[in-house]
Amino acid sequence: MEQTKRDELLIAAVAQNDSQALDVLFKAYLPMVYHTVAPYYIRLFDEDDWLQEARIVCYETCQCYDCQKGKSFGSFYKLRFKNHILNLLRRELAQKRRGDRQTVLIAERPKHDAISEDT
Fold this sequence. Notes:
The protein is mainly α. Helix content is 63%, strand content 0%. It is elongated and about 50 Å long. The termini are far apart.
C-alpha cells in the first residue's frame, strides 16, 4: 500500500511537470520497461531509443491516469507502453516504408555490381 501512495504522489508531481518526480517514477518501473521491450526489434532502435520512448509514455500516462478508476498505475503504464510499441512496429512494417527496408548502402554492395568510374 505504501508504494501505491508513493506512486500517487509522484504521479501528481509529474502532472505538474516535475521532471525529478518523473525520473524517480520511471526508474521504479524500469524493470517492467526492459521486460516489455525484450521480445521486440525495430530497425535502427537502440537501448537509448527504447528508454526515451518509455519515458515519453510514462509522462503521458501520468497526465491521463486517474487514481479513482481502481486500476494500478503499473498495469496501466504497461498496457499503454505495449500499445505504443505495437504502433511503432506498425509504422515500421507499413507498406509505404517497404522501400526503406530494402535499401542497401553503397558501401555494403558487392564490388562487381558497383558502377564503374567511366560511366
